[in-house]
Amino acid sequence: MTNQRDRIARRRFLRGAGGVAIGLPFLLSREGDTYAQAKAVPERLITVYFPQGMPTSERSAGLTGVLAPLAPFQSKLTALRGLNCYADSPNNGHSHGSSGFACGFGTPVLSTKGGPSLDWVVHEHTQTDTPLPTLSAGFSGGDDIAETVRYHHSWRGKGQPNEVILDTLKLFNAIFGGQVLMPTGPTPDPVQVLKARQRVSVLDTVLADYQHVVSDAGGYSPSIRSLISNHMETVRELEKRAVALHLVASGEGPAIAAECKAPTAPAQMDSILGPPVNNLNPKSTPYFKEMWSIMTDLYVLALRCDLVRFGNVLCGSGGDSYPYECPAGKTANVHGEGFHLWSNTSIRPIVIDHMLWTMTNIGSLLSKLDDPTYKDVDGGTLLDNTTVLIGSELGDDVANHGMSDMPFWIAGGRKRFQTGDFLIPGGRSDVDLYTTILRASGINEPFGDPNFYNDVLPIIA
Amino acid sequence: MSANFSAARLVEVSVWACLGLLGCTGGPSSPATQGPVSSGGSVGTGGTAGVGGAVATAAVGPSAGRRLTKQEYLHTVNDLLGVDLSALSDAGLLPADQPPTGAGFRNDIDGLLPTAVRTDAYEILATRASERVVWASGLAAHAACVDPTAACRESFIRGLGRLLYRRPVSSFDVQNLAPLFETTAGDAAGFEAGARLVLQAMLQSPHFLYRLERLDHVDAVSGKPAPSPYELATRLAYLAWQSAPTAELLDAAERGELMGDAYPATVQRLVEGPNARRGFEGYAQDWLQLYRLDVRTPNEEQGVSPVLLAEMKEETLRFATRIALTEKRDLTALFTDKKTDLGPALAQVYGVQAAGQGFASYDLASDPNRVGILTQPGFMILRAAPERATIVHRGLMVLRIFLCSEVPAPPNDAATNIESIPTNLTDRDRFAMHAGTPTCKACHATFDPLGHPFEPYDLAGRFRTQDQFGNTLRSDGEARLDDTLQAYGSTAEFANLLSQSPSVKRCMVRKVFQYGLGRTLRGEDEVAVDDLAQRFEAAGRTYAAALTFVAQSPAFRAAAPNE
What is the 3-state secondary structure (H, E, C) of chain A? Predict the structure, then answer.
C-alpha cells in the first residue's frame, strides 16, 4: 500500500546514504553476542495506537473498505471484535480509553498510566538487553498537551513513561546516539576516541551520583529515592550505549553490519511544533504522512538491527483536533466536526476517508515490517516474528466516546494466534486480550486491573 | 464534492456536552465551601475549610524532589553559566512539561516524570553548555588555581558545585568528580578541559536536575524536621525567579539570614529583585495557561493565524505583567483595566488602527466591549476547539483559572452529539437545551452561565452582534458567584462582578500557593489558604503580596512530606 508520496519521502530520506556513514552500536551491546550469531528469534512486541476508534459497521465486512490496507496481511492477522474497555480517568472518554490502551488500568491522574504497558512487561520478562529497551515514536495532532496518557503508550510503571518521540530528528538521534562519535576513516581518530572515552567517564560519574542518592547513605525520602531510581535507569541505558560507541570509535568492537549503517539525519519534522517542511505545515495530514514515512523507516531499521524489540508506534492521539480534507469534503476539526458527527450522513464519508487514511498509514508500517528482502534469523520477515498489537482508545460509538466493541488486531505474532475474524461475546474486557498475548508468549503473570480480567481469549493457535 | 457544514452540522458540544449529575451540585463554590474534586466527586477546589473537612493540622510542605521544569532548567543554566540554551535547536531537545491536571501547574511534581528522552537531551545540552561556557567569565572564577593538584581540583569542584548543587559540596561529591580531571591529563587544555568535564557531569547530576531535600535537617529552635537554609533558598529562588539561588542568596543562607527575623527582608529582596519580572512571566504562563497558545492549531479560514496566536500570547502576558509587576496594582484590575498592547494582527481583531509593525499601547476606554483579560482573544481562545469557541470552553476557563473550581469527568456514556437540537440556534440556546436534560443539567448549570458573557466574541476574539444564522448575540446573564445568583448586563459588568468576588480574590492567592508548593493542594491546605486570603486582601491584593505571604507561610517553610 505504498503510494507516491511514500515513495518520494523514502527516496529523500535515503538519499543521505552516500554521506558520512555512522553506524548503530547495537552489535556491541551484548559483549559480542551479536544478533546474527544468536540464531534464535528474539521476542518482540510493538503496540500501534490510532485515535478515535472505529465503528463496528466498518469492521464487519472483512478487510474491505477502510480496512483494505490491511488486506495484504490477512494471512498474518487476527481481528478481534466485541471487547470493551472499562478503564477510567479524571477526564473525558479519550483519556479513559487512552489510559487503558495496552495497559489495562484506569488512572486517577492524567500524568501517568496505572501500571506497566504490555511491551514493557514482555521486555522485563524476557530480560532483553538491547541498547534501547523500548522505542516509542509517531505523530500527534493534539492541542491538549495536559494529558500525558493520551500520548505515551509505553510505560515501565506508574510515573515511568517511555516518552513518545514526535520529531523525526529526535528519533534519529535516539537511534544513533545523539552525539556522532563514529570513526570516519579506516583508522581510529585519536581525538574522537578520547572524546568517546571521556563521555563514558562523565556518565560513569553521573551514574555514581544517582546511585549515591538512592542508597541509604543519601539521606533522602523513599519517594525521592524511587524517583531518582527511575531516572537512574535511563542514565544506565545511556551509559551502556556510550560504552558501545567508545568501542566502535576505538576500533575495538566488531564491524558494523552494512545494512545497519544509516543515512545522514533526516529533516526535522515535529508534528506539533514544526517547522514547516516542503510547504507542508505541522498539524496537517500531509505533514503527518511525510513524518510517518520517515519515522517508520527509522523504526523498522532499529528493529532490523536489533537496537530495540519493544515499544509503541503512535498514529495520532485521542481527541486530535486538526483539519482534514479529502474528495468527500473537508472539516476544520476531524475530531469535533468529524468523528463526533458520525451520524451525519454528509459528514460520515469524510470520517470514513480519514479512517482509510489511518489504516493506510498502519498498512505501510506492516508492509515495511513484512518486507521479504529482509530475512530474520529464521528466514522469516520481521512481521512474522513480531507481535504487533493494533488498537485505539474508543470503540464502536465514535461519536460519544463509546468504549464498547473496541477495534483490535494482532499482526504477525509468530503464528501463536489463530488468524481470521473473531467476535468475542459477553462484553469481555480488553484486559483479557492483553493477558492472552502474554500467555501466548509464555508469560503467566497477571496484567492490568484484576477487576477487568476474566479469562484468556480463544484465539491462541 | 464538499459537504455543506454550515447547513448540515449537528450539534456537537465536545467533551463537556453531557456530564453526570453526581459531580456537580450548582454554581461555583464560595471559599468556605470549596471542596476537592475527585473523579465522580463533588465540584469545587481542592480542599475546604468546611465541607471538605479540613482541620487545623500541621502544615505540609512543598513537594520535594521536583525536577527542574524546562524553563527553570534554561534559566538556571543561563544565570549560572551565561550559556543561553533557549534557541529551538537546543531547547527543542527537551520535551515540554505537562501539568498533571487541567488546572495544574507545570511545576507540579506529579507531572515531572523522568524519561529516557530527557536523559538523552540533558546529556547533549550538558555537553553543549560545557563547550560554550566562557572560561574566563564563566568557570575561571571558581578555580583558585589551575595546577594539576588535588587541592586545585577540589577547590574548583567545591566552588562550582556550590552554585550548581545549591548547597555546599560534600566529600562524596569531590571524590566522585575529581577523577574526571585525570581523563584529560594528556589534554593540552589541561585543567580547563577537566573542569569542563566536571561541569558536564554536574549538569547531569540529580543534585542539579532535581530539587532534592534531605530528611536530616531539623529546626534549631523547635527540633522538628525542616528544610535547611540552602533548601529554603532554593525554594525561594525558584518561586520568585524560576531559577537557582545566586551566590549572594546562598551566602545569605549560610549566614542564617533565611531564618528568624531576617527572613521577611530576604523574601522582600527576592520579590523585588531584577529577576522578579521573569519569575512572574513564568508564573503567569502557567496560571493563565498561555503556554497552550504555543501549540494551538491555527484556523486560517477564521483568521486565527500563527502570527495572531503569537500576538495573543504576547498581549495577555504584557497586560498581566504591567498590572502585576510594573504598576504593582491590585490583581483584580486584570478584570477592569482598559489599556492594552496590541500587535498589527490583533489590532485588526480589536478594530483599531495598527500603529506599525510592532506592538503598541492602546487605550480602549471608548470601547464598551473590551475590558481586561476576559475579552482578550488570548484568554478566550485558550481551550476552544480549532473551528469554534463555545460558551462551555470559555466558562470552564473562568471556573478553573479564576474560581479555582473544577468539574468531574463526564461519565463514559456522556452523549457528545445530541441530534435533536437544532444547529441554527445561538450557543446559549443550544446549551440551554442540553442543560435541560437530566444527565447534563448539573454540570452545565455550573459552567455555562460563566461562558454566557463571551457569546458575542468569535473564535479569533472579534466582537460581533449577530452570528452566522442572524441570531442576535447577548452578553448579559446571571451567574452564581459566592453562593449568590448575580445578574449582569454585559461582559464588562460580568468582569466587574468577578473583580469584586471574594472567591475570585481567594483563588488568586491560592494559585500562587499551589505554584509555590509544586503539588496539588490537599484538604488540610485550605486552612492556610484562608489565612493567606485574609492577608492578601488586607495588603491590597498585589502579586508581590501574594508571593511574599506564600513565601512566609508555614507550609512553604515546612519540611517536605516524608513519603
Answer: CCCHHHHHHHHHHHHHHHCCCEECHHHHCCCCCCHHHHCCCCCCEEEEECCCCCCHHHCCCCCCHHHHHHHHHHHHEEEEECCECCCCCCCCHHHHHHHHCCCCCCCCCCCCCCCCCHHHHHHHHHCCCCCCCCEEEEECCCCCCCCHHHCCCCEEECCEECCCECEHHHHHHHHHCCCCCCCCCCCCCHHHHHHHHHHHHHHHHHHHHHHHHHCHHHCCCHHHHHHHHHHHHHHHHHHHHHHHHHHHHCCCCCCCCHHHEECCCCCCCECCCCCCECCECCCCHHHHHHHHHHHHHHHHHHHHCCCCCEEEEEECCCCCCCCEEECCEEECCCCCCCHHHCCCCCCHHHHHHHHHHHHHHHHHHHHHHCCCCCCCCCCCCCCCCCEEEEECCCCCCHHHCCCCCCCEEEEEHHHCECCEEEECCCCCEHHHHHHHHHHHCCCCCCCCCHHHCCCCCCCEC
